[in-house]
Amino acid sequence: MMMNKFEFKAGTSRDDKILGLLLPTIIGLSTLTAYLIIFYLEKKITPKNSSLTLRYLVFLIALSLMYFLIKNIQKNTTNDFVVYLDNLSIKILKDETEIMSGEIIYCKIKSSNDKLVHIDIKTEEDKITLIARPKVYTTITGNTSYNPFGTGTVSDMKTLLTLGRKIQTNIKSV
Question: Which stretches of the chain are assigned E, i.e. beta strand?
Answer without folding.
Answer: 4-12, 79-86, 89-94, 97-112, 116-123, 127-132, 136-138, 144-146
